[in-house]
Amino acid sequence: MKKILFFLLFSSYALAQSSQEKIESIARNYFESNYVQNNFKDPYSYELKKIWSEPITKEENMRSSINSADLVANNKNIPKSMREEWKKKKDSLTDEYSKLSTDEGKMIVGYRVYFDTYAANSYGNKVLGRYKLLVDTVGKTIGAVESVN
Q1: Residue 10 falls within a domain, yes or no?
Q2: Which domain holds residue 39?
Q3: Is the pLDDT of residue 138 over 70?
Q4: For the packed helices 80-98 and 58-73, what is the interaxial angle rounded to 10 degrees?
Q5: What confidence tens digit (pLDDT) does each residue in 49-79 have?
Q6: How close are the terminal C-alpha atoms of the chain, in Å?
Q7: Is the predicted pLDDT of residue 10 greater than 60, yes or no?
Q8: Does the structure show a pLDDT above 70 at 6?
């Protein structure tokens, strides 16, 4: 009975995760329909040169969260009560990270999708731009599109 429940749980989790190509397709649609139309000077001149993605592992994501919490906890410009709160958060994340097994650490929790694009600037010249978008394993965007260059 336990094996059947484990199999059902694992298969439903696997079906919820999308392939890397599908993630790139979802990210491309989001990028073109939202970011290009709203932020490019001349959206009609937009050309996608290249798209690629990198997986984000649970271990990498947790290390990043610990580093962010550490930066806030040690920032002297933030009120002391808030710094104490972030120190507690950092400690709990560090404890959780230390209990992380090797297999759990290698689990993919999201993707960084990069776009190399050509588009006209305000002078009409074509310029190369590189952008990054974070997407989770089910295709939901995390945060906003960031310019890398």
Answers
A1: no
A2: 26-147
A3: yes
A4: 160
A5: 999 999 999 999 999 999 999 999 999 999 9
A6: 53
A7: no
A8: no
